[in-house]
Fold this sequence. Notes:
The chain has twelve helices and twelve strands. By secondary structure, the protein is an alpha/beta fold. The mean pLDDT is 98. It binds NADP nicotinamide-adenine-dinucleotide phosphate.
Amino acid sequence: MKKVLVTRPLPEAVISALSKVHKVAVRDDTRPMGRDEMVAALTRFDAILPTIGDRFSADVFAAAGEIRARLLANFGVGYNHIDVAAARALGIMVTNTPGVLTDATADLALTLLLATARRAGEGERLLRAGGWTGWHPTQLLGTHVTGKTVGIVGMGRIGQAIARRCHFGFAMEVAYFNRSEKALAFPARRETSLAALAGSVDFVVLAVPGGAETRHMIGADTFAAMKPTGIFINIARGDVVDEAALIAALAAGEIAGAGLDVYEFEPRVPDALKAMENVTLLPHLGSATLETRTAMGMLAADNILAFFAGKPLLTPV
Ligand code: NAP
């Protein structure tokens, strides 16, 4: 029986599956771990099930000295909060949860795209504030979605799930920018520069991983290249976007709107964004369905169970 730390409360089914085999401690706090907590956890537990915000940096590993943990089974597909190279150098394995959250996250991208194009947040706020005086032909006119062109930045699992929804559900043309060429099960044109993509589509949807390689990949240049009627959607990671440049582009009317699930310095969301009616703001809800969060937890748990049973990891990073 190994000692396992789960760093946030998770759906009961997950804790119960892990507890049948190992001694599980669940951290009773919904906030990210502090540095000292992470250092202590590395020395006291055989495996840790961390998630977004738990910054396992090289510095934290170094401060821990004698490390007991052999596995970080991350809850989430994105693992840019873990210094994987530093972990690997110490013989600590890292896993993530790809695939099981693809559909939920793609659904949320479409939620943001539709809500922003059709001014749903603005309409809801108007109605709740008692400002709706009745239907009229020119009230809250939005942007048509069906048949328009979507540009996906990062045509991986989630990017493709978004593109499928746009193509099959909304008869949209699909264009994409991606590190490598993709074999796709739907028609899509590949652009070889971000600016060419941004300038030729109605919606830019960001679905690349976060981390050093993609930090501020989207900035003033991309927004300047977008159509003034263009809408920008981010369900990837906040630091992929230069948030100050996004705010400036929105303020200058360089783009028409934005739908955001993630923020550069989350959970801090700039007041400038909150003040803009043409921006839809969600609190990082990409994978937030009970079914998906349970599946993510089960996959993280299965990695831990496999590891200590001497079997291959299911989804190593
Ligand atoms: P994935 O299958 O690995 O897809 C990522 C795609 O981005 C790949 O196609 C990759 O290209 C491409 N890419 C990577 N770096 C690039 C670069 N510098 N330039 C252009 N393209 C680049 O990952 P996924 O499962 O779709 O997840 C994507 C990300 O979404 C995650 O890493 C996570 O941060 C984020 N996410 C957010 C939420 C949320 O709650 N909002 C939920 C789930 C995931 P290649 O094909 O060449 O590898």
